[in-house]
Design a protein that fits this description.
Elements lengths: L10 H30 L1 H27 L6 H10 L8 E7 L2 E8 L1 H8 L8 H15 L3 E8 L10 E7 L11
Antiparallel strand pairs: 1-2, 2-4, 3-4
Helix pairs in contact: 1-2, 2-5
C-alpha cells in the first residue's frame, strides 16, 4: 500500500519528511521509555528497552537489507550502506571509519543524550542495550560480524563522541578472534 499523497511532494520535501518521521520515531521511543522509567525505575525501563531493541533491530536491518538488495553476507560495505539508512542516520551526527575488516561507527552528537541533558535527567545508560541493538543489526547484514562497545555511557573512553562501536568481520580464512 502506498500513500499517493506523497507523490505531490518534491524530493527536498520528502527528505524533510523522512527527517520528521525519524524525529517522531525517536520521540515515541523516548516517551514510552520515560513512562516506564518514571513509574518503575531505570532498571525496569532498561529491561523493556533491551527486549524491544532485540526485536526491532532485526526488523529494521532486514528491511534495509532488502531495500538495498544486499547479498546474504554483505560484508563491510553492506554494513556501511545499511548503517547510513537507519532512522538514527537522519537525526544524529555520525561517522563511519573503515580499516580492513573493521568498521568503526561513531555517533558524534546524540539526540537522546542531548534531550535528557536538556531536561536535567541523568544520561541514558545505553551501552548494554546498544550491544544488543548494534550486534543484532550487524548480524542480519552479515552473520560474520561481531560488535564491541568502544565508548558508550556509562563507560566513556572517547569524550569526543556520544558513543563508538567497532564491528569486526570474521572471515573463513582464519579471521580474527571473536569479540562479544
Amino acid at each position: 500500500m502506498q500513500n499517493k499523497s506523497l507523490q505531490a511532494y518534491s524530493k527536498e520535501e520528502l527528505i524533510e519528511l523522512i527527517e520528521l518521521y525519524a524525529k517522531n520515531w525517536l520521540a515515541m521511543d523516548g516517551v514510552w521509555f520515560q513512562s516506564v522509567e518514571q513509574k518503575f525505575g531505570m532498571d525496569e525501563a532498561m529491561e523493556h528497552d533491551a527486549n524491544a531493541w532485540r526485536r526491532f533491530t532485526v526488523t529494521e536491518a532486514r528491511r534495509i537489507k532488502k531495500f538495498l538488495r544486499l547479498e546474504e553476507r554483505a560484508g563491510i560495505e553492506g554494513l556501511r550502506q545499511a548503517l547510513r539508512l537507519r532512522f538514527y542516520a537522519n537525526i544524529n551526527d555520525d561517522e563511519i571509519l573503515i580499516d580492513g575488516n573493521t568498521l568503526t561507527y561513531r555517533t558524534l552528537h546524540c539526540r537522546v543524550q542531548d534531550a535528557r541533558t536538556g531536561k536535567g535527567m541523568e544520561l541514558h545508560p545505553c551501552r548494554e542495550v546498544g550491544l544488543i541493538e548494534y550486534s543484532g543489526f550487524a548480524k542480519v547484514i552479515d552473520d560474520r560480524f561481531t560488535c564491541e562497545a568502544v565508548s558508550c555511557h556509562p563507560v566513556v573512553t572517547d569524550p569526543d563522541c556520544a558513543c563508538c562501536w567497532r564491528f569486526t568481520l570474521h572471515t573463513e580464512e582464519g579471521g580474527t578472534p571473536d569479540v562479544l
